[in-house]
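USER: Study each token:
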Amino acid sequence: MRLIGMDRYELGDATLNGSGESSVNLLTGDYIGDWNYYDPLANNEAGELIKIPTIKTKMYFGKIYLEAFSDAVYYDFEERCAKLYYQEKEKECENEKISHPICSWLNIFYTTVFVSILFF
């Protein structure tokens, strides 16, 4: 059996910072991510959850078979997703010309992660 796709969900922290979901089709390399970040200065400084535009890109992995599957496969996917999230978050902040702490450093958020893995 060969792994053909992975999905990832994050709930983010108490403000839902870093919440969202992503998936990758391992046959085509198509990645789609829908992520959010919390901006404490938005909405007249009342704070607001900001949706990052949907990320669509290619993300390639080698062929992964059930016999070779391990946590390392998932953690690799997680790291790649996080890298894309931070890149897009920085672009969003630059596009909006936001200059406050939420955009000037890459915050760490605590998450609950669920993974669904598809084999055929």
Observations:
- Residues 17 and 37 are 4 Å apart (CA to CA).
- The two ends are 6 Å apart (CA to CA).
- Strands lie at 3-10, 20-25, 30-39, 48-51, 55-58, 113-119.
- DSSP finds three helices and six strands in the chain.
